[in-house]
Design brief:
- It comes from Streptomyces roseoverticillatus.
- The structure is a single chain.
- The chain is of the alpha+beta class.
- It folds into 2 domains: 52 residues, no CATH class; 103 residues, Alpha-Beta Plaits.
- Strand 3 and strand 4 form a beta hairpin.
- It is elongated, with a radius of gyration of 18 Å.
- The C terminus is likely disordered.
Length: 170
């Protein structure tokens, strides 16, 4: 069942810094299934594990459509520390998958590629608006609120977020 569009203008209810983690893979050689299939299967296991654990720090994620050979997931995290803790935890899905990928990569001659980027976006340096859409991105991860609470225009929402961050630190 697909999510229903929200008919009014809303914005993400995020407060403070926002941690955005982009991760992806690319199948470079379709016939090298033994090299890319384990990589392809690893991400859903990790996302399921993280989603089940309320204390994991993962607030939300969204897979992006791309070419048949590319897979990308946008993730929103509670903090950089929780993201790094998950990545390093030997008892979670990531470490064994990363070890397995590195072992396979040595003999794969580039059959599969991976990438990731992490951004810590300071309060006051992001804004959002959603209209006629189901919850997406930051709004899905942090919840939504009426756009009027933060400002009708993007510049107002930037100023509003920066002001709340200064008030919180005072």
């Amino acid at each position: 069942m697909s999510a229903q569009p929200i008919p009014e203008r809303v914005t993400a209810a995020a407060e403070g810094d926002v941690v955005v983690f982009l991760i992806g893979m690319r199948i470079n050689r379709w016939r090298a299934v033994r090299h890319w299939l384990p990589t392809l299967r690893a991400m859903p296991r990790m996302l399921k594990e993280l989603s089940r654990d309320e204390n994991s720090g993962l607030l939300g994620f969204q897979a992006l459509a791309g070419s048949p050979r590319d897979r990308t997931v946008v993730q929103y995290w509670e903090s950089r520390e929780k993201l790094l803790a998950y990545a390093a935890d030997r008892n979670k899905e990531h470490r064994p998958a990363w070890t397995d990928f590195n072992r396979r990569a040595r003999g794969s001659e580039g059959s599969v590629g991976i990438w990731h980027e992490t951004y810590v976006v300071p309060a006051g340096s992001y804004e959002s608006i959603y209209f006629g859409m189901p919850k997406q991105g930051l709004g899905k991860a942090y919840g939504i609120e009426p756009v009027a609470r933060r400002g009708e225009r993007a510049a107002e929402r930037f100023a509003s977020a920066g002001g709340r961050a200064r008030e919180a630190s005072a």
